[in-house]
Predict the structure of DNA polymerase IV.
Amino acid sequence: MNPEAAPAPRKIIHVDMDAFYASVEQRDDPSLRGRPVVVAWRGARSVVCAASYEARKFGVRSAMPALRAERLCPDAVFVPPDFVRYKAASRQVRQIMLAHTDLVEPLSLDEAYLDVTEPKSGLPSATAVAEAVRARIREETSLTASAGVAPNKFLAKIASDWRKPDGLFVIRPHQVEAFLTPLPVGRIPGVGKVMQGKLEALGIATVGDLRQRPLEELQQRFGSFGASLYRRARGIDERPVEPDQPVQSVSSEDTFAEDLPLEALEPAIRDLAAKTWQAAGKTERVGRTVVLKLKTAQFRILTRSHTPDAAPDSAEALAAIAVALRERVAMPASTRYRLVGVGLSGFRDPEETASQADLFATR
């Protein structure tokens, strides 16, 4: 009896729009083309939503304080974000993807995974699908997208960044190990500067170095994230593409270089609220509940939340609620905090939010 054939490897595409918000602004206003464009509100507490590639040459990046962006690039053109137009362009792009597969998992307005193991468009390969998607995006929206093609989501996301902007990179199954081995461990999603420093202190600088460490050691040092590192070092990612996963929550957090008292946390809370608001702007859903997260110097985690009658309508409104939540932290004044986070949860579709508002409106 012949053994049952192993399932064919998945064919995953990660599509990432190039400098999406800034590119929409340059498309719609010809006077901005070729100029350094920064999508951000001006102000001491504003953060950069997006930067054109002309601005990125000066070191301007998303989530950077707008004041710092202005210092790095004094000639930058600051444009306030217009999420109505960005969401309209995103819907166009989504329809193009859905012409090839029903398995589209949006990550935000400007990126998504596609499972094209069996494309409904009948194209002969995942690479052909990626080329067709990118060509149609350019033709129908006058915007560019980069794409990565690989056997799983983790690799596809790395690949899409490989030839940005307006590029396509393919990692075939037999190329996975050779591709991953020389990569810095910082290229693994979830490995930020702090984790990268911890790994490098152990002599782990590349994915190849990481692959030499046994699962037991990584789990002992880093818990469940250690198991994830073990799998990623081998190019393993079994997560399926899950279409239409509604956003439930977004958050931002920061660990301080030194522990701080509660009254000193307001600047960090406002900065994190701005980042969380920017992330929330990438979904069409509306968040209601504001969450403040704190971690004490003794690693005790505290959370406080508040659901106002109306959803926060600006970064400033979100920040004001998060700052006020400190009053509900019943800890001794001597307590010091090593981490603070600001989140937004209780997301609902705009129609549902509107219908609830109508329900409770005074007649």
Q: What stands out?
A: The chain has three domains: 1-176, 181-233, 249-357. The two ends are 74 Å apart (CA to CA). The chain has a mean pLDDT of 89.
